[in-house]
Amino acid sequence: xxxxHAMTIGPIVEIIEYPTFFMEVLIGGLLTGVMYSxxxxxxxxxxxxxxxFNFAQGAMVLFAALTFVGLMEHGLPMWAxxxxxxxxxxxxxxxIERLVLGKLVNQEPIILFMATLGIAxxxxxxxQTIWGSDVxxxxxxxxxxxxxxxxxxxxxxxxxxxxxxxxxxxxxAIFFQKTRIGRALRAVADDHQAALSVGIPLKTxxxxxxSVAGIVGLVAGVMWGSxxxxxxxxxxxxxxALPVLMIGGFTSIPGAIIGGLIVGxxxxxxxxxxxxxxxxxxxxxxxxxxxxxxxxxxxxxxFGDKIIERV
Amino acid sequence: MSDTGNTLLSVxxxxxxxxxxxxxxxxxxxxxxxxxxxALLGANGAGKTTTLKAVSNLLGAERGDVTKGSIEYMGDQIxxxxxxxxxxxxxxxxxxxxxxxxxxxxEENLMTGAYTRTDGRAAIEESLEKVFHYFPRxxxxxxxxxxxxxxxxxxMVAIGRALMANPKMILLDEPSMGLAxxxxxxxxxxxxxxxxxxxxxxxxxxxxxxxxxxxxxYGYILENGRVVMDGDGESLRSxxxxxxxxxxxxxxxxxxxxxxxxxxxxxxxxx
Lengths: 311, 271
Hints:
- The complex is a heterodimer.
- Chain A is mainly α.
- In chain A, about 75% of the residues lie in helices and about 5% in strands.
- Chain A has 2 domains: about 50-235, no CATH class; about 240-310, no CATH class.
- In chain A, β1 and β2 form a beta hairpin.
- The longest helix of chain A has about 30 residues, at about 20-50.
- Chain A starts with a helix and ends in a 14-residue tail after the last helix.
- In chain B, α3 runs parallel beside α6 (about 150-165).
- Chain B has one domain (about 35-60, about 80-250, about 260-265): Rossmann fold.
- Chain B has helices at about 50-55, 85-90, 105-110, 120-135, 135-140, 150-165, 180-200, 210-215, 235-240, 240-245, 260-265; strands spanning about 5-20, 20-35, 35-40, 65-75, 75, 90-95, 170-175, 200-205, 220-225, 225-230.
- Chain B is built from 11 helices and 10 strands.
């Protein structure tokens, strides 16, 4: 009886009693969710354009962050390190297309997936071989103090992350909707064969997609790196991106954002208000449970492509 | 067959093997004159699509390989060019089954056809106008998703998209597939006008021999990966064998169903 109360009425009463506290938790959660979205975006890009589920996205995030920090440690100013890292990520995309995916054209999706698994292991090891495996602090000058908005404390860092994510989505949306390459990318995502037949060179397109995913990975890596320090666990945040993708849909950029927000807010609110009833640590599994519910009731996610069927 | 002008495309005795094992074309030769419509006729699996894909080099994406023979376009060997390079040179394929980009609007679909163009926005806009002129229905549907348009409209999108590349030659694969006879007629009329007014040469693969031969200047009949007969449209249409096997007409008295066993009785001209 007591447990039932703690699961149902208790948290609701608490939320109503302390609305500012609830808002603080909610906003904090939403803003953490944005960070998940940043990682999920990279997956969406590649999956949309080539149907490959890129297991290496997490490793790319780590690799980009490591390169960025490493270059800064070697005395490069931040802007130069940023440009150099972007160049490295583009070169990486080129290499992956040339050495791995280019050789596997027309293979089953599972084979391509396994190839990205290989890329992930390679990148994890390669990055740490070059730049070392210590935890590196990363400071890109984001203030870490909080501001008070109508009684609700919000962290500057979280706000910055949200702005960065918003900007990135806007840029990607313009890129996909308005540019020639973007249109070609969407065409390739819809129908490889037809895209090939109208003269869209698939290899170039895939290289562009991997480059963009690499740059998105860099942004995610910098944000997460400034939060947690650049370290191996960065490549594991990709695991948190999975439920985000399942909820938002593997093929939708807005889906990745909304999915991230749902996961971030959901797990924080669940942890704070429902946690005590079950002994805490809800945060660790909440996202996966939610994703499972989605898989059962709406497998394409909230915004995933529906299969268009003419009748 | 060279009274219509210069040869634009010539396919010389090509052999195509899929997956290193399956021999699909066993020596196909054909020619397309500049400004002509040439039909490639034959039943399912005769090798029509494979022939077109050998020309447009879409075979590579299906693990097919041209192992013998050569393909020349405007005097150049083109076997080794990528589809993208071929489109730039003016050879584009409209694939069987339409293959529209379902999640793009009709207009965006058309614009993807202009991907390889480098002659500027104004020229591309002009081409778009031209496509809308030939396919007025597409103008009305220009903002709807291609996936939600009708089969006929999708075929128009596919042909219009190819036109956007400013091609000299369109490889048109089975445009009549799954369409009502009236629509087939409409689409063939438009293709015919494109050929006459824009001077686009057309290599057409078609099962529907009746329609195909009516619009084609010249025709080849494929069977089991070989050309078994060729001739101009008129003479093929009046050929007794073609009439019986492909047009469903026959001279003399009607035969009973018991006698008509097309697939068993089909004549092989070469083998």
